[in-house]
Design goal:
The chain is built from five helices and five strands, in the order ββααβββααα. By secondary structure, the protein is an alpha+beta fold. Strands 2-1-5-4-3 form a five-stranded antiparallel sheet, sandwiched between helices. A hairpin with a 5-residue loop joins strand 1 (about 10-15) and strand 2. It is globular and about 45 Å long. The chain starts with 8 loop residues before the first strand and ends in an 8-residue tail after the last helix.
C-alpha cells in the first residue's frame, strides 16, 4: 500500500465527566485487537486531564474546541472539546490510519475535528434528554455513597452513535 493513500483516523474516543471520571471509552481498529489497548488508552486520556484544565481556564477562549492537547508520539495525538456543563470529549488520532502503516506528510489541521466533536456533543445531548439517564448517578460521590450506577454510560444508542462517529470521521469532512 502506498503511503499517499493513508489517512489519519480516530483511534479512541473518550467521554470524561465534569469530575474527571471516565464515562465512556470507544476504541477503533487497529487498536481493538490489542489486549491491553483499553488500559493504555485509559492512561492516555487520564494524562490529558491536566491539559484540559489549563486550556479551560483560558479566558480568551472563544470556542469549545480546545484543539490539540498533546502529541504523544509521531503516531498518536490527543484532541479535546469541553461542553458548557464541563463534560469533556477527547479524541485520540492515529496518524498511521486504520492500516497501522506510517504515513509521510499527512497531518490534521486545527479545527478538522470540529465535525466529530459537534456530532459527539449532539449524541451526548440526546443521551441527556433520555428520562432514564441521570447524569448525577455517574459522579464519583454518588458511586461512593452507593447511590450511583457506576461511571460508565451504558446506553446502546449512545455507544452506537459514538462508534459511528469514530468510523465515519476523516480529515476534511464537513459533517459526520
Amino acid at each position: 500500500m502506498s503511503s499517499t493513500s493513508i489517512t489519519p483516523s480516530i483511534a479512541c474516543i473518550g467521554v470524561i465527566g465534569k469530575h474527571d471520571n471516565p464515562l465512556h471509552i470507544s476504541l477503533f481498529p487497529p487498536h481493538t485487537a490489542q489486549p491491553s489497548a483499553h488500559l493504555e488508552f485509559s492512561f492516555l486520556l487520564n494524562s490529558s486531564l491536566d491539559i484540559f484544565d489549563l486550556r479551560a481556564r483560558d479566558r480568551n477562549r472563544l470556542d469549545q474546541d480546545l484543539g490539540l492537547l498533546h502529541a504523544v508520539d509521531e503516531r498518536l495525538s490527543v484532541w479535546g472539546w469541553e461542553t458548557g456543563t464541563g463534560t469533556r470529549f477527547a479524541v485520540v488520532l492515529d496518524m498511521w490510519g486504520r492500516e497501522g502503516v506510517q504515513a509521510r506528510g499527512m497531518g490534521v489541521r486545527e479545527g478538522e475535528l470540529k465535525p466529530a466533536f459537534r456530532a459527539l456533543q449532539t449524541a451526548y445531548i440526546q443521551l441527556l434528554q433520555n428520562p432514564f439517564y441521570t447524569p448525577d448517578d455517574h459522579t464519583p460521590m454518588a458511586v461512593a455513597k452507593g447511590r450511583g450506577k457506576g461511571g460508565a454510560i451504558t446506553s446502546r444508542k449512545f455507544i452506537k452513535e459514538v462508534e459511528r462517529i469514530g468510523l465515519a470521521w476523516r480529515p476534511g469532512i464537513a459533517r459526520v
